[in-house]
Amino acid sequence: MTQYLPTFTFPGITPRVVFGPGTLAQTGEEVARLGASRALVLTTPPQAEDGAALAARLGDVAAGTFSEAAMHTPVDVTARALAAFDAAGADCVVSLGGGSTVGLGKAIATRRGIPHVAVPTTYAGSEMTDILGETENGEKTTRRDPSIRPQTVIYDVELTLGLPVEMSVKSALNAAAHAVEALYAPDANPITSLMSVEALKVIRDALPVLVDAPRDVDARARLQYGAWLCSTALGYVAMSLHHKLAHVIGGSFDMPHADTHAILLPHTAGFNAAGTDLLQPVADLFGGSVGGGLWDLAKRSGAPLRLADLGLSEADLDRAAQIALKNKYQNPRSFDEGDIRNLLQAAWEGTRPAT
Ligand code: NAD
Question: Is the CB of residue 183 less than 8 Å from the CB of residue 247?
């Protein structure tokens, strides 16, 4: 039987990527390539020393450091960072860290119209996307705009060797969630789908190796490669039920971002696998069961499995299901409040999904 490709748009992939061990040394060159010469180096407080070391290495190309990046890009932190950016006479930002630091880089770059070199040190996958989530007065709003996307991304595996195993696992599963949802996105295209399947294969194979040998450079590099693919897919297509639920649980109940993604993924993916054949490649990769296979990988890797362990109460699940139903969004399988409540119950208890 001839299978015709559906109509699709391929948007092109813009951020320049520099990948490989030791590539952090190319940061100055990459800043210059963007026509900039005074970089403000951004980090979180725990990575402040790494930021100072990078600034020292950049010499005159560094305008200074700002090390207050925080989860979910609070706008008051961004205001302080903008003041530091202006006071230093900077003309670009270099964000060195996980999704929180890359988020701050995006918040500054989109407001000042300046270039952004992102140097990710986790697998969360913000660096390739045009998405920025910001918090003000406890409320998170997310928007997409091309000016949010960094111009250059440097993936230096050496920066990930010290990422604690537990954080590495959750972060990699966070990345996997982008790939799973990219496969059934309404605006999916053959390239993001290829990337997603490749990413899930890489994560499936590399994660257990990393858990057993956290400083295995090859496993770390493969995971970083997988994270790049996941981030790219996330950056070019729309997300569905999984990201919506993670947003609700993380935003409305203040649950940790990566843990929430890691716990929900087998349940959201398993639920949707019963409603679309677009996840068949994932079933093929994970022993025939999308949700079950992802749950097995999470368990084998020591990932958190139960929303209950994050401190969410059973009563919170009712409210979460109601909030998740408030706005309409696309999903390959239709659902009602009862479906979401059942899905959340399973994630709360941490049971292995059947599909
Ligand atoms: P994070 O950036 O908050 O990092 C968690 C902690 O790990 C921080 O203290 C950080 O300093 C530390 N850390 C990072 N790399 C390290 C390393 N190599 N070694 C030791 N410590 C290290 O966490 P995250 O999970 O990377 O990012 C989460 C944030 O990213 C959330 O705010 C989320 O909304 C956002 N995010 C955004 C997008 C997007 O496209 N906009 C995509 C994914 C995630």
Answer: no
Ligand 1 pocket test: pick from 167, 228, 255 the residue with the most ligand atoms within 8 Å of its Cβ: 167
Q: Are 269 and 279 in contact (CB under 8 A)?
A: yes
Q: Is the pLDDT confidence value at 308 over 80?
A: yes
Contact 154, 30 (CB under 8 A): yes
Q: Is 168 in the pocket of ligand 1 (CB under 6 A)?
A: no
Question: What 8-state DSSP symbol labels residue 123?
Answer: S
**Total-model pTM:** 0.96
Is there an atom of ligand 1 within 6 Å of 72 CB? yes
Query: Would the CB of 160 count as within 6 Å of ligand 1?
Result: yes
Tens of pLDDT, residues 278-302: 999 999 999 999 999 999 999 999 9
At the topology level of CATH, where does 165-349 sit? Dehydroquinate synthase-like, alpha domain (1.20.1090)
